[in-house]
Amino acid sequence: QVQLVESGGGLVQPGGSLRLSCAASGFTLDDHTIFWFRQAPGKEREGVSCISRSGTNPYYANSVKGRFTISRDNAKNTVYLQINSLKPEDTAVYYCAARGGYGCIITETAYNYWGQGTQVTVSS
């Protein structure tokens, strides 16, 4: 069964850190481009970060640059999103999505596989 499973979300205080995981089963992530999206309550889903098949030149939205780091562990078939210096505005459900093509296309319809999401809540 082909699926993506996110984990690592939770409740954290402002300034804290989390590491989100996106684990794949039924296919290999190292030949896919992975995009992390997030959706806050009452807002549209937005693209946050992406790592291409080559792993070079990762993409970060301006709102997260310098705070988020995307990486992949091909041996574990997992992509990670390290989130530091969390802000209340980072509160959202975070989704990972995969596509077989090269390049970090931000269009959601380009992604074939989606996880169920993991909740990140930043609050004191």
Structure explained in plain terms:
- This protein has 124 residues and is an all-beta fold.
- The chain has no helices and 11 strands.
- A hairpin with a 7-residue loop joins strand 5 and strand 6 (59-60).
- It starts with a strand and ends with a strand.
Q: Count of DSSP helices?
A: 0
Give the proportion of residues in helices. under 10%
Characterize the overall form. Answer: globular
Beta content comes to: over 45%
Chain-averaged pLDDT? 95
* Extended strand count: 11
SS-derived structural category = mainly beta
Radius of gyration from CA coordinates: 13 Å
List segments where confidence is low: pLDDT < 50 over at least 5 consecutive residues.
Answer: none
Strand count, sense and barrel status of the largest sheet are:
7 strands, mixed
Q: Could you give the distance between the termini?
A: 39 Å
- Helix/strand order, N-terminal first: EEEEEEEEEEE
Task: Give a quick set of tags describing it.
124 residues, mainly beta, 47% strand
Topology:
Layout lengths: L2 E5 L2 E3 L5 E8 L7 E7 L6 E6 L7 E2 L7 E6 L4 E6 L8 E8 L13 E2 L3 E5 L2
Parallel strand pairs: 2-11
Antiparallel strand pairs: 1-3, 3-8, 4-5, 4-9, 5-6, 7-8, 9-10, 9-11
